[in-house]
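Hi support team,

I've been running sequence recovery on a batch of backbones for a student project. Most finish fine, but this one hangs at about 90% for roughly twenty minutes before it completes. I'm not sure whether the input is malformed or the queue is just slow. I've pasted the structure tokens below so you can try to reproduce it. Let me know if you need the job ID as well.

Thanks,
M.K.
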């Protein structure tokens, strides 16, 4: 698959995201909520198989999965997002490990990783900063 960003729950930032990445010709594919139970592999063109449509709550914040980025293209894309003021905390690259995960599983995993990183940062913050 060519360079693409699978966007979950990011309808509010979609126009801004498209403007920021238009010069880079990155495809942005918004994923409808009913497809959140499909594997990432299926969402990138693999076999969908039989899944029940997702009927749960919307994601509280957007998630982006980067597909097909090579070389420095990821850095260039992330820089374009930063310059445009677009912040997506839950980001991942499609890998051999996560391609069989559903969007739901990846969203949960990214949340756990983010929380662990925040705890680590709080625990290792210099004491002067911690008092402020």
């Amino acid at each position: 698959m060519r360079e693409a960003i699978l966007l979950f729950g990011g309808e509010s930032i979609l126009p801004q995201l498209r403007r920021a990445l238009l010069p880079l010709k990155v495809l942005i594919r918004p994923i409808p909520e009913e497809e959140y139970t499909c594997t990432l592999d299926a969402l990138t063109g693999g076999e969908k198989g039989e899944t029940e449509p997702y009927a749960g709550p919307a994601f509280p914040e957007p998630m982006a999965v980067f597909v097909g980025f090579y070389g420095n293209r990821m850095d260039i894309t992330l820089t374009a997002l930063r310059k445009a003021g677009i912040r997506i905390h839950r980001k991942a690259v499609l890998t051999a490990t996560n391609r069989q995960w559903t969007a739901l599983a990846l969203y949960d995993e990214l949340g756990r990783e983010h929380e662990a990183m925040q705890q680590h940062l709080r625990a290792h913050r210099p004491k002067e900063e911690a008092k402020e």
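--
Follow-up from support: It reproduced on our side and the slowdown came from queue contention, not your input. The chain has five helices and four strands. No action needed from you.
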